[in-house]
Design brief:
By secondary structure, the protein is an alpha/beta fold. The protein has helices at 2-29, 88-94, 116-135, 147-159, 181-187, 191-198, 203-213, 215-218, 220-228, 233-247, 254-266, 304-308, 310-313, 335-351, and strands at 41-46, 50-55, 67-70, 99-104, 140-145, 163-169, 275-277, 280-282, 291-296, 319-324. It has an eight-stranded mixed β-sheet, with helices on both faces. A two-stranded antiparallel sheet has the order 7-8.
Length: 353
């Protein structure tokens, strides 16, 4: 009798597992349809390089200084607006800030020679100018994430008169202190040769770099976790949104990628104040405006020490470093972020806007 009972129990567990696997397969097939970027917004300016998005204010009185978010050139910006209860943008808007976002478009083969000079001195500057004239104000708050934070720092070193505050999230600054797999991979890449043979950095290669960072966590493990939680709707929706984002990697303009690898990762020119974009030398010590740097202690894409170095580079007297016990994505798109990170960031913005 006991053996029969055990057999029935094992059979039942096996059938339950099969049901969950089937349900998982069905859900993964439709994962592309999951909705992201839900905070109400409109595109206010569009070029072949970017879309400038403005988020509809939620409060009748918004802070005087608008925030311009500069996203990275890697992956898509909807990670900042994944779902309402985990949205960086929704939180800032609901705290009474006037928020704009630069959504970068994927480069075409004609954009092979597009460089940091274009991104910083033309595209970001155009967006800053648009907001200044639209709002009839002199300055904006510049708020960058990851590679977008690095570009925001470059911009401030050259055009500080147009910026009231600089807030960065996980910027790549001192590559000598970056011990991540991505940094080590970048140090051994022949960026010049890649540029001359391939042109733009293809998205497939970028995605395979990401997968190599945490192969088990990125592979088998996360799907086992999904099967286990397949009946938990909010877990599944969150999983699908992050999965969509992970695979949604655009190409990167060839010359920009070459500079990123060669100048920043291999020769650490940005940190040494020796990096040139166009005819301009980037000197981070020229930055004197209020500065906030937000860093994740468990970041496996950018080492926290590589980012924290920016606080030593700038000459601002009003500067702050906030460190949080979370990862690169957890910093901006999680319940932890909503409860711990955003209230502090919002408070910092409020007293300076």
């Amino acid at each position: 009798g006991r053996r029969e009972g055990n057999f029935r129990k094992v059979t039942k567990e096996y059938e339950e597992l099969l049901r969950k696997i089937e349900k998982t397969k069905t859900i993964l097939h439709t994962s592309g349809n999951v909705e992201v970027g839900i905070t109400p917004h409109e595109v206010v300016q569009e070029t072949r390089a970017y879309k400038l998005t403005h988020y509809r204010p939620m409060l009748s009185k918004t802070a005087r200084t608008p925030i311009l978010i500069v996203y990275a050139l890697i992956n898509k910006s909807y990670i900042l607006d994944l779902q309402l209860d985990k949205s960086w943008i929704h939180s800032l808007v609901s705290q009474g800030f006037d928020v704009y976002l630069i959504n970068w478009k994927s480069p075409t083969q004609y954009d092979k020679y597009t460089s940091f000079d274009d991104y910083v001195n033309v595209y970001i500057d155009d967006c800053v100018e648009y907001i200044r004239s639209k709002k009839i104000i002199d300055q904006v708050t510049l708020h960058g994430y990851c590679m977008g934070a690095t570009m925001s720092a470059m911009y401030c070193s050259l055009h500080q008169e147009k910026v009231k505050n600089l807030a960065t999230i996980a910027p790549v600054i001192d590559s000598s202190r970056d011990t991540t797999v991505l940094a080590n991979f970048s140090r051994h890449l022949d960026a010049e040769r890649m540029f001359s043979t391939v042109g733009n950095m293809p998205k497939e290669q970028l995605y395979s770099c990401y997968s190599a960072l945490k192969p088990f966590k990125q592979g088998v493990n996360k799907y086992l976790n999904l099967v286990e939680n397949i009946d938990n709707d909010s877990f599944v929706q969150n999983f699908l949104r992050i999965e969509k984002w992970l695979y949604d990697t655009p190409d990167i303009a060839g010359e920009t990628f070459r500079q990123w690898i060669s100048d920043i990762y291999q020769h650490n020119l940005l940190y040494k104040n020796e990096m040139k974009i166009g005819d301009h030398l980037i000197d981070l010590s020229k930055i004197t405006i209020p500065f906030l740097n937000i860093v994740a202690e468990e970041d496996h894409l950018v080492s926290p020490e590589c980012s924290a170095a920016l606080n030593d580079c700038v000459s601002s007297t009003d500067k702050r470093l906030l460190r949080f016990h979370t990862g690169h994505v957890g910093l901006i798109a999680s319940s932890y972020s909503q409860n711990n990170v955003l209230p502090k960031v919002g408070q910092w913005f409020r007293t300076r806007s």
